[in-house]
Amino acid sequence: MGKEEVRFEAVVDVGPLAVCVVDNPVRDEALDWLTEVLRGEIRCVVPFSSVMGAHIVATSYLGADPGEVAYRLGLLVGVGEVLWFSDLSLNRVRRAFSLVERYGVDSWDGYLLTVMEDFDIHKIYTFDLEDFGKISSVKALLPISRKSFQKFMKWVKNRAIT
Q1: Is the pLDDT of residue 2 over 80?
Q2: What pLDDT, on a 0 to 100 scale, did the predictor assign at position 159?
Q3: Alpha-carbon distance 112 to 121, whole Å?
Q4: How many Cβ atoms are within 10 Å of 48's Cβ, its own excluded?
């Protein structure tokens, strides 16, 4: 009997991870989503770049303590029924920049698109609905309800880090 192939349904972007490790009004809902991901109920590829980026977003844009965020992300990495993905090869970087040119997205998003292409994945959990929404082959999914997302964005705006 052969080994069963595991199919992944989505890639995880930076924002959803950052929201899970920062105290904020929608954290509990985001953690419910993350629990489903870690249990394998939602089959996700999580690039290590998303984890690293979550630290930047959490500390630089959401005002969280860098040490606390590092601790929380350190506990998260490598656990659960997730494909923790680490390929940042020369070929992938070149492909990412090609996608940046094609779609007018940033380099992080271009990289995520290469991961999605390689795994034949068309969904991404993200807060970057605008950029990923430009790409017809990609379905951008919020890990929280739209109402909660609006609540989160209002919270971010009121906290504006300068």
Answers
A1: no
A2: 79
A3: 10
A4: 14
Q: How is residue 157 written in tokens?
A: 């705006």
- Looking at domain 10-159, its CATH class is alpha beta
- Residues 124-149 have a mean pLDDT of 96
How many residues are listed for the chain in this entry?
Answer: 162
Give the side-chain half-sphere CA count within 13 A for 35: 6
pLDDT of residue 57: 96
Is the CB of residue 7 less than 8 Å from the CB of residue 129? no
Tokens found for residue 63:
């005002």
Separation CA 22–CA 103 (nearest Å): 30
Give the burial class of 47: count Cβ atoms within 10 A of its Cβ; 0-12 exposed, 13-18 middle, 19 or more buried. buried
Q: How many angstroms separate the CA atoms of 92 and 151, rounded? A: 36
pLDDT tens figures, 37-81: 999 999 999 999 999 999 999 999 999 999 999 999 999 999 999
- What pTM was estimated for this model as a whole? 0.93
Best CA proximity match to 52, nearest among 99, 14, 102: 14
Query: Are residues 17 and 128 in contact, defined by beta-carbon separation less than 8 angstroms?
Result: no
CA end-to-end distance (rounded Å), the chain: 59
